[in-house]
Amino acid sequence: MLKILGKASSINVRKVLWTCAELRLPFEREDWGSGFRPTQEPGFLALNPNAMVPVIQDGDFVLWESNSIIRYLASQYGGQALYPAEPKLRARVDQWLDWQASDLNRSWSYAFMALARQSAAHRDAAAIEASCQAWSRFMGILDQRLQQTGAYVSGAAFTLADVAVGLSVNRWFLTPFDKPRLPAVEAYYDRLAEREGYRQHGRNGTV
Fold first, then answer.
1. What residues does the GST N-terminal domain cover (predicted)?
2. Are residues 131 and 34 in the same domain?
């Protein structure tokens, strides 16, 4: 059976859990990470030298990096609806997966740590403001995209791109700061909440 290593509160572990829910894929999960077994243990480092969650073990196959994991799961376990085989459709999904992992994530990192996690190491007011502004700008890009599609990030159908972006949208709404009104993002947030996997692993009160 598929094994997932990582605590269920981690946003990147939740990508994997939500994807498994969409695929109806059974798994076992072990708690690793802050507050649980340390990822600096030699046994974990042998699986992922970056000491980060999640990691999966699918038989003798080991994989880390959350977006790579969800791509693999969809490809391996009949998730063509989530990750299309047609090159142009797949490239559109990949585009938004990569955007979430790079541009969007970098924008909210400092503000999230300061405002949601109350990190003592993130107290620079100017850095917080800059992060909030950058985050708002990228969320504006997402709002424009959702206005175009009227549905999901890569188009009319739900895909892996929505797993990654949807969890970031949840974090956007749960981080306390003065946000611009983004009607298409708000509608998207409610649309995702119609999916059981998102209610379990995304919009579940965990930031």
1. 1-81
2. no
